[in-house]
Design goal:
about 290 residues, elongated, 11 helices, alpha+beta, 3-stranded antiparallel beta sheet, 12 strands, Multidrug-efflux Transporter 1 Regulator Bmrr, Chain A, Arc Repressor Mutant, subunit A, single chain, 9-stranded antiparallel beta sheet, about 40% helix
Length: about 290
């Protein structure tokens, strides 16, 4: 297998095998180049399965499943076991182990994870989601921060503002650690009744050495006390409240909570922050920061 060659041979030895056996290697790689077939391999890596069990696991019809299984068998990645069961071949286990380890250590995986975080933040702040019914509030004090700022104005300014921030932050590696460099967003200027255009601004916490560049400005945020609630925004755009009012219902709820509490509304900036960027797209989470004073 490939990992053995890498232990004892050189890259030239490996490339010679690729050259000499290009058709066969291409056939094997092609057999894996399908998400359903990878799903089949994942199911079989846990043990033998019958045709019916594989059909249940993948949701494939009989004809489609038979086609995918035949390709994997021909490639030597799975084999038919006794009593109508299928199992993964030992060659496949070693082959996939090498691919998995290589990908896990790759720059591409790191870039994919950064892109996932960036896309998550973009979905959050364009409000493609729905608020939770229950309101759970915690009090948080944000420290002062040196922030990079990107702003845009239009009918959907969130995308434009985020693209500016992303183009600046991603090459600097700032999206790799969103705990160290949290991202906040807010309307600026806020929507006006009857007006389609409004503004949106992103802030990213950065070190004091960062300086303004192009569309990116540097600002000093003095921090402050906040009442914070977390929203699951999956169906927000479809909610009657959003259609009628054009805003998140949880913002209304947290403002009402502040008015009924021992706190009063503060004058520092309202903020929105994407939470758990590694989460599922179906479970997009947003923290709402409502400014308060004692």
């Amino acid at each position: 297998m490939l990992y053995r060659l890498m232990d004892v041979g050189s890259l030239m030895d490996i490339m010679e095998i690729f050259r000499s056996h290009s058709n066969d290697i291409s056939f094997i790689m092609g057999a894996l180049a399908n998400t359903k077939r990878i799903e089949l391999m994942y199911t079989l890596c846990k043990g033998q399965n019958t045709f019916k069990e594989l059909q249940t696991a993948t949701g494939l019809g009989k004809t489609a499943l038979a086609h995918h299984l035949a390709l994997l068998v021909d490639a030597g990645l799975i084999q038919r076991a006794e009593r109508g069961h299928y199992e993964m071949s030992q060659d496949a286990r070693e082959f996939l182990e090498v691919i998995g380890k290589t990908y896990a250590d790759s720059k591409r995986k790191r870039e994919a994870e950064v892109a996932k975080r960036a896309n998550y933040i973009q979905k959050i702040h364009t409000k493609e989601i729905h608020t939770m019914k229950d309101l759970d509030v915690k009090i948080v004090e944000l420290e002062s921060m040196h922030v990079a700022s990107a702003q845009a104005i239009g009918e959907s300014p969130e995308d434009k503002a985020w693209n500016k921030m992303r183009a600046w932050a991603e090459p600097r590696g700032l999206l790799e650690d969103l705990e160290e460099h949290p991202v906040f967003g807010f309307d600026n200027p806020e929507p006006s009744p009857g007006q389609k255009e409004y503004g949106y601004e992103f802030w990213m916490k950065v070190g004091p050495e960062e300086e303004a560049e192009g569309d990116i400005k540097m600002k000093e945020f003095q921090g402050g006390l906040y009442a914070v609630t977390t929203c699951n925004l999956k169906e927000e755009l479809e909610s009657e409240f959003f259609k009628k009012n054009g805003c998140l219902e949880s913002w209304k709820k947290i403002v009402e909570w502040v008015k009924s509490s021992k706190y009063t509304m503060g004058c520092h900036q309202c903020l929105e922050r994407a939470h758990d960027p590694g989460g599922s797209v179906d479970e997009l989470i947003l923290d709402l920061y409502c400014p308060i004073v004692k």
